[in-house]
Amino acid sequence: MSRRPLLAALQRPAHSRSISKQARAFYQNKQVDLWAARPIQPLTLRQIVFFGRDLSEDRLVQSANYVRSEIPVRLAHRLKDLQNLPYAVVTNERMNEVYELYMNAFHAFRRYPVITDPTENDAFCVFLRSMLNQHMPIIPSLALGLLESAPHLAPVTLDALWTRMLRSRIGRRVLAEQHVAISASSASASRPGQGQVGVITTDLRVGDVVRKCAELARAKEGGGVQVEVEETQGEGAKGFAYIGEHLEYILFELLKNAMRFTMLHHPSNQPCPPVQATIASAPSEITIRISDRGGGLPPNSPSLYTLSSLLHRNAAQLEPLRRTRHLKGTVGEQMQMHPPQPPPPAHVSSVLDRNNEVPEHLGIGLPLSKIYADYFGGSLKLTIQNYYNLPNVTSLNIGVVQPKDAPQQIPQPHAAEGGRKRRPASEPPMDHKEAKHNASSPANKTPDYGACSDEEIELLLDHADVAVAAAG
Asked: What is the mean pLDDT of residues 85-110?
């Protein structure tokens, strides 16, 4: 047998052999394959709320073990998505950073031992907070990595991956942040208000949120445009269950962009027409319509709600995003990163001229808002009416359910790995009987989110289930 291929391989430069080894390690990971073969087990917002209302130590431990065993499954699915990309994409510095963060978190979660008591749950919450902080670079790194990899990806593929990765991120953070929040409220002497269960507000008033976001957006954009809010006294006025931080982010982005383009579209010697926000509710949904006269977009413009809409930007326009190393995706974070603009002097028009500087914009606010809206069972749609001197209309729909709709039962936990306790390296792996016994132990049972009476349903959520709050 000829030894030429072997000799040729040995004569290759060292860096070439290391790249080949790195590529094999990237694609050949049995643990990722095993966990990715398991189905994702989604939870509804209603299930999460009911479980978090009345906690005991046992239920808190059950919640901890559900989060511990579910998050690595979701991470494995996303790692497989990345592995299915062209290798040139994942060798991009930003995409490689995302991959490494996911892989490290995957191994950390799958190796975390079973939680058996409140003390161990406290340590698990510290671990969760650490993981949440470590993943703060995900949004800007993923956005820049995909944009820089555009030569290797079709726009539709780029947008699909962006959406799938961000939807999964929302689900994982909801699980982790909710568990940390209910653990903190369980340990605190002062219980949270009746309208709050963990990170979920069960009595959210849309009108109040719109007005709050309007004031913040006016402060951020220089205060040149007023917002008129019209609200019907329907079901939405009574309050509903939602993650307030997410709804605030969506509305803040929509109002901020409406104000900004209204100011840019009108000369400084003319008053700006107000942005109008109309809230209408029906038994099955709440609709928020934001109308502005910001001039619209040229015909055949790409959707502002897709990441691929940023492909036309040059390096200078992407620089604000490049400088952003950490991004959680909240209104408070934006106000801290870019402080509000000071109001103009009294003798100067309160309208920004086209040539004036505007607050720094990253460009991913609307694409991220679209994912938030779709994820929680709603929709986000922009209607441009350039040629009829009519306002542009952005419609945000939020789905709700009736009180008679009972919460669904949570899916059964994953049988494998769920009950594995950490053991010294010298000990042999568990046999089949031991694994089966551990998987059925109380610490590894999935929390019964659906075990609640009809009376509880009517007391808590008049119209709540707007989300598959933990879809992969």
From this structure: 94
Q: Cα–Cα distance between 159 and 154 in angstroms, integer?
A: 9
Q: Which residues of 351-369 are buried (b: 16+ CB within 10 A; e: fewer)?
A: bbeeeeeeeebbbbbbbbb
What tokens does 137 get?
Answer: 């670079």
Collapse the DSSP code of 411 into the 3-class scheme (helix H, G, I; strand E, B; otherwise coil) and give the result: coil
CA dist 448 and 74 (Å) reads 21
- Specify whether the CB–CB gap between 418 and 444 falls below 8 A: yes
How many Cα atoms sit within 13 Å of 430 on the Cβ side? 16
Round to whole Å and give the CA distance between 70 and 75.
Answer: 9
Residue 374 CA to residue 369 CA, distance in Å, equals 9
Task: Name the residue among 418, 468, 404, 417 with its Cα closest to residue 447.
Answer: 418
When mean pLDDT is compared over 46-55, 164-173, 201-210, the highest value belongs to 164-173
- For residues 179 and 67, the answer to whether their CB atoms sit within 8 Å is yes
- Beta-carbon count within 10 A of 270 CB: 10
Contact 139, 368 (CB under 8 A): yes
Residue 286: strand, helix, or coil: strand
**Long-range Cβ contacts of 323-329 (<8 Å, 24+ apart):** 324/140, 324/362, 325/136, 325/137, 325/140, 326/136, 326/137, 326/140, 327/136, 327/137, 327/139, 327/140, 327/362, 328/136, 328/139, 329/139, 329/249, 329/368
Structure tokens at 427: 């000990």
| Count of CB atoms situated within 10 Å of the CB of 470 | 27
* Range with the poorest average pLDDT among 104-118, 154-168, 264-278: 264-278
**Residues 6 or more apart whose Cβ sits within 8 Å of residue 33:** 80
Structural element, H or E, at residue 171: helix 155-187
Q: Tell me how far apart the alpha carbons of residues 137 and 324 are, in angstroms, rounded to a whole number.
A: 8
Alpha carbon dihedral 319, 320, 326, 327, in 10-degree steps, equals -130
In this structure, are residues 102 and 145 in contact, taking their beta carbons and an 8 Å threshold? Answer: no
Q: Tell me the sheet residues that pair with 394.
A: 290, 382
Give 227's strand partners.
275
> How long a stretch of residues is the chain?
472
Compute φ and ψ for 241, nearest 5 degrees.
-90, 130
- pLDDT band of residue 391 (cuts 50, 70, 90) is low
